[in-house]
Prior knowledge:
Deoxyribonuclease I, Chain A
Amino acid sequence: MDVSLCAGVATYCKDAATPFAAEEGLTGLLTTHEGAVGCYGNQAEFSRDELQMLDNEGRAVITQHKVNCQDKEEALTVINVYCPRADPEKPERKQFKLHFYQLLQRRAEAILKDGSHVIVLGDINTSHQRIDHCDPSDKDDFDENPGRKWLNVFLHGVGQEEEAVEAAEFSEVISTLPGSGGKFVDTFRYFHPTRANAFTCWSTLTGARQTNYGTRIDYIFADRHLAKEQFVAADIMPEVEGSDHCPVWGQLSCSLLPSTKPPPLCTRYLPEFAGKQQKLSHFFVRTDQKSSLPEQSETLPGSQEEEEKRENLSPVADKTGQKRLLKSDSALPKGKKTKSVKTASNPQGSLLSFFKPKVTNVIVSGDTPVGQRENRQKPDAVAPSQISRTADVSATAGGEAELRCNGSQPCSSTEENEQRTPTPQAAKKSSSSVFWKSVLHGPPPPPSCKVHGEPCALRTVKKEGPNMGRQFFVCARPQGHVSNPDARCNFFEWVDKGK
């Protein structure tokens, strides 16, 4: 299985909503413990391998709760899903998505038939109606999309007709609306049948959230009797940022009856979390830093050469310039030598100590070798306040120069001397900079888009094909509807390969 296709779903329950049963997946193949929800429906049209593949990506978690509805105890099953995306470049994923939809419907209807109320929520990855899409006119086959056809079968339609005929039976009203054959209701549309521009997902690559150019693909579906009798509100929260999706929520009037003990699927009972899962308060307790520090020695890779090992083991040279070997080297087997951490005798000071200027008196003698003369003529920059305001510079016939301050003439700083006479290192650095600028070209200057007259954004083609890797310019504004003046215009220009 391709790791990139792995998903993940989690359901967090308060103590007041502790479930009586919990299960991973839709097929039942992942259930190896007691306390499962059960009711799997008819899976005859799927092979075992297909069922295993549909559950292998971690796209469903089911919890079953007990609720008190009008002094009557009833079961409520929550199916939390992350439905697959139909990748246009991978035709097999389109079929995988439809199979997941079919399996989800069979499981939800089987649980409903067994007597439990059912809520299906999560990222369904399909916008249902045209009102749920930012620009449905761009899709000629909008209503022919297989995902939308499935939603029409899975859902009851809800619209203004229901509000106009309050006395009519619920099932009779919705039978004339799109998606009249299903057993579930889109709770958002149940309470907001005509609200437009209500989206839950936006493209982060194009900044579409700024112009609300998105889709509504996150839902809370409930069986029609639960939606009619117990739901009091449902809405979206587009103001909450932090993801390319926004939260959705629903509120019920019935009260929850918590279980005294979570089901075995609860993470506190899973072997991989045994003894490791902590409460949130544990993260704010002061711990002993010594116990949390890693060991000071670790094994060096066996592939290193002997000289590299010695250098890593003892990076500091002795006074004679030769590298010293540790006494423990001879006792260690080949390829198993360990690093030694040497502590500096002088503790490191504060960060400000790195920015304090150093005062250096420069005395150059004619007897000094040229190499040492160059090194000694590069003192650190001296702050003007740390030297006298005036100085005399005198030179003797022997070639000695001395810097003396006597209060009669302005004193020249080290920075001024360096500017007058560039050092060989500075000249080398300058030539190196010129070389790399000639080899490595920066990004080309962006043109201005024709509509807004603003600098364009540089993009790169990542889709496989003849233009893979080519760069182009587009309007830098966020994506939006063509009627929105604040949205991106249709400017496009390829980057010349010669630039």
